[in-house]
Amino acid sequence: MRLVLFAVCVALFCASADAWFGGVGDAIGRGFDRVSGAVGSAVDRTREAAQGAGDMYSAYRDMRESNWKNSDKYFHARGNYDAAQRGPGGRWAAEVISNAREGYQSGLSGQGEADTRADQEANNWGRNGGDPNRYRPDGLPDRY
Questions:
Q1: What is the pTM (predicted TM-score) of this model?
Q2: Cβ atoms < 10 Å from Cβ of 31
Q3: How far is the C-alpha of 129 from the C-alpha of 16, rounded, in Å?
Q4: Is the Cβ–Cβ distance between 117 and 125 less than 8 Å?
Q5: What's the pLDDT at 123?
Q6: Which candidate, 119, 117, 68, 70, places its Cα nearest to that of 94?
Q7: Reduced 3-state DSSP string for 64-81
Q8: Interval 102-122: pLDDT, tens
Q9: Residue range 91-106: average pLDDT?
Q10: What phi, psi does 44 have (nearest 5°)?
Q11: What is the phi/psi pair of residue 137, to 5°?
Q12: DSSP per residue over 4-51, as a string?
């Protein structure tokens, strides 16, 4: 019985508080909508990032499979382009992966600073929506 009485008192208090503070309940509801929107946005960005990472891996796998001379810039641009088309999360993933790869590879590849700069130019070109075919080498099979 005490529990029922407590529940009735809480309901009356909340109803009167809403009358006194007019619209607080609506503001709280809008706050929940904002939180819900933020969570949904975070989920979208995470999905885009995962898909973008997959796009980057697909471009890397295709580059290794094609084994085509002077094709690395094309695959850099294509991977970044495909990932960025997923949305902000994909663009972020492409940037992080590209920068990490170039940072790691710059000291190990033996290609030097000029190659790293050229790779980053191709990365940026693709990530910013440029056509990856700008870097496509002659004769590369159409499947790539």
A1: 0.74
A2: 10
A3: 56
A4: no
A5: 98
A6: 119
A7: HHHCCCCCHHHHHHHHHH
A8: 888 877 766 778 889 999 999
A9: 92
A10: -60, -45
A11: -75, 150
A12: HHHHHHHHHHHHHHHHHHSSHHHHHHHHHHHHHHHHHHHHHHHHHHHH
